[in-house]
Amino acid sequence: MFLTISLKSITYKPLRFILTILGLAVAIAGLISLMSFGEGARKAIRRGLEAYKPRILIYRGDFFMPTPLVPLQMADSVKKLGIGDVYRLVRIAKPIGFPPRGMAIVIGMDFASRIKFIEDYTIIEGRGLSDSLKREALIGEKVAQTLGYTVGDTVEVGKGRYTIVGIIKSPSGISTNAIVVPVNLLIKDYDFRNILAVSIVPKDISKTDSIAKALKEKFPDYQVQTTQELAHLTESMVAIGDIIRFALSAIALFVATVSLFAIMAITVQERTWEFGVLRALGATRKLIFNLVLAQAILISLLGWVLGLLLGMVIIKAINVVAYQKLGFEFTTMTVRLGLFSLAVAAGIGIAGGFFPALQAVRKSIREAIGRI
């Protein structure tokens, strides 16, 4: 019965409440679409670190920016330590097509190591790379679709041309937009004197942390991190981004809260006599207060439902464009994000309805009925 009364209250001046719900929906959709970038980044980080085989990385600057700052000789120095498999990492962003129709990630495969740097790709057509001296390439499924390449075609990377011997894909999305070539030829084609990072898989995985600590002491001018530490670092960066994105969406949320407050205050003012009659018939101040507050929360929840649907449409549209251009999805809708937006919507309802609810019970029965 309580819910029924609240629902009927919304039908009072329906256009007014429909517009309020739409305003709330737009604000919630904006919140969801902005925060989904952070959720997408977390998903990509988790999948990426699961896909990468190395447990320790030695690099300079920002690992996620493809800037080679580690001397080539560093890999040989680490190999001499005999602590495990060592891999030279070179990763380059490369526009694909002319005019550019997307962005590929060129990755060097190091045949000097028995490990694959990326573990999760599968070959869906052709075969893998067989020789570090052959100009052969694997290309991601998205690159092949964008450029119309098939096995046997050639792709240009730097100063070199490579024959495509296989097409790959991966559930993490890392390989879907990749071009994989032998790392020594990649270094030669770009005249590199530096690489992005030296990556290591210890012989004894249980000693990863102690080995990383020893490497930090041996190479104090470099950043030495385990993939777990890198995950924590990137998670902190994403969290900072979440704060910024929430601050941007807070403007629309504030406007939505003020709008709901104004509408509820006007509604309470117009229904003062009705509330006075209810109290004369035995309704308590608490019941009136709860009815007004429930109405505000119900409006905000209806706005949340509509905003959630609109936000999911926006996320889908962003991902369609991102996948067409870059080969991976930028945004993700998660249960956590849905619950967070629900909490925000409920907070808007409480903030927008609390003071109008106080206003509804402040007058005496005589004052309220006297407004007829």
Mind explaining what this structure looks like?
The protein has 372 residues and is of the alpha+beta class. The protein folds into two domains: 2-46 and 234-369, no CATH class; 50-226, no CATH class. Helix content is 56%, strand content 18%. It is built from eleven helices and 13 strands. It has helices at residues 2-10, 14-51, 73-79, 141-147, 183-189, 208-218, 227-270, 272-280, 285-326, 335-362, 365-369, and strands spanning 56-59, 70-71, 84-89, 91-96, 102-109, 122-126, 136-140, 154-157, 160-169, 178-182, 194-195, 197-202, 223-226. The strands form three sheets. Strands 4, 5, 6, 7, 8, 9 and 10 form a seven-stranded mixed beta sheet that branches. Helix 1 (2-10) crosses helix 9 (285-326), helix 2 (14-51) crosses helix 9 (285-326) and helix 2 packs antiparallel against helix 10. The chain is elongated. The mean pLDDT is 82.
Concise description?
This protein has 372 residues and is of the alpha+beta class.
Mean pLDDT: 82
Main β sheet profile: 7 strands, mixed
Structural class call reads alpha+beta
The run of helices and strands is HHEEHEEEEEHEEEHEEHEHHHHH
Q: Spans of 5+ residues with little confidence (pLDDT < 50)?
A: none
Taking the alpha carbons of the first and last residues, their distance comes to 27 Å
